[in-house]
Specification:
Order of helices and strands: HHHHHHH
Number of domains: 1
Largest sheet: none
Structural class: mainly alpha
Helix content: over 70%
Number of strands: 0
Shape: globular
Length: about 160
């Protein structure tokens, strides 16, 4: 059960680009959930999901043979980071009711690209947490990548829609 959770139902076991698959799964789940809860509730859900995932990931890494610090199949962190990256879009939907579907898709795609960029390149301080050898850092480097992406998305939103 733990393995199904941290691998997002086995997606993390894919032989090619499991992190990208985790991000795409995050977008799909986000699209469903955003229809039923408010932006504040979505942010709260992401925070709760982070702490729950931290405990589950710690359990998985401890039980896994070899005790690898950041196993590639653990992709729940990509889902959480991608959600954080998408939060500014939730607030835009809440503020502007005239945003088109194509504009939303463009911002989701931009969010995806930015998150993957920060997750792969890992500028400081993301790289600092990535180098730590604990389950918190497995998740937190992706949280920071999502946060960096959210900052850029927020700037884009301000520039395009509010200035």
């Amino acid at each position: 059960m733990v393995k199904l959770y941290v691998t997002i139902l086995g997606l993390g076991l894919a032989p090619f680009a499991p992190g990208t698959l985790g991000s795409l799964a995050g977008i799909l789940l986000w699209l469903v959930i955003r229809e039923v809860i408010s932006p504040g509730a979505m942010l709260f859900t992401a925070v709760v999901l982070f702490f729950f995932s931290w405990i589950i990931t710690e359990n998985y890494i401890t039980q896994k043979n070899g005790g690898e610090h950041d196993p590639s199949e653990v992709i729940i962190d990509e889902l959480i980071g991608q959600w954080i990256s998408l939060i500014p879009i939730l607030y835009l939907d809440y503020i502007l009711y005239t945003i088109s579907i194509s504009e939303t898709i463009t911002m989701i795609f931009l969010s995806f690209l930015l998150f993957r960029f920060f997750d792969i390149v890992k500028p400081w301080p993301i790289s600092f947490f990535d180098q730590q050898q604990n389950s918190f850092s497995v998740l937190f480097d992706d949280v920071l990548a999502g946060f960096f992406s959210a900052i850029f998305i927020s700037g884009y939103i301000l520039w395009i829609y509010l200035l």
